[in-house]
């Protein structure tokens, strides 16, 4: 396992910066599109839930995360209690008293193959351009 990990790390280190930049750009665009689709699928009657859908970047700038919820949808469990919960999770997964109204994961699953295909296309295009085979 360690040999395989070292070999993979060595291969990844050889990837040209142009290819990494193209992949990161496409990943950001894909995350933004997915964020818009998830926001559109979010129930409107849940206050700030739709507005809480956002794209956050990773530490290295080549990974992006679509998130829903957070400070704008965090509510106390009961009035006067210090314990809180994220209403986005309650909507997505349901509670004992509320049926789940999924919006996040079904949208992600429906678009996952399209996102992956777009990333693979951009990477192939960047590799071809780097190798002098691309027309752009």
What does it look like?
- The chain is mainly alpha-helical and about 140 residues long.
- The chain has one domain (about 15-135).
- About 55% of the residues lie in helices and about 10% in strands.
- The protein has 5 helices and 4 strands, in the order αααββββαα.
- The chain has helices spanning about 1-15, 15-40, 50, 85-95, 105-130, and strands at about 55, 65, 75, 85.
- The strands form 2 sheets. It has a two-stranded antiparallel ribbon with strand order 1-2. The protein has a two-stranded antiparallel ribbon with strand order 3-4.
- β1 and β2 (about 65) form a beta hairpin.
- α2 (about 15-40) packs antiparallel against α5 (about 105-130).
- The longest helix has 27 residues, at about 105-130.
- The chain is elongated.
- The two termini are about 40 Å apart.
- The mean pLDDT is about 90.
The largest pleated sheet is described as:
2 strands, antiparallel
Q: Provide the succession of SSEs.
A: HHHEEEEHH
The geometry reads as elongated
Structurally, the number of domains stands at: 1
Total count of helical runs of at least 4 residues? 5
Main β-sheet, spatial strand arrangement: 1-2
Q: Structural class, from secondary structure content?
A: mainly alpha
Quote the average pLDDT: 88
> Strand portion, in percent?
5-15%
User: Would you report the number of β strands?
Assistant: 4
Poorly predicted regions:
none
Q: Termini separation (Å)?
A: 39 Å
Radius of gyration of CA atoms, rounded to a whole number: 20 Å
Helix content: 55-70%
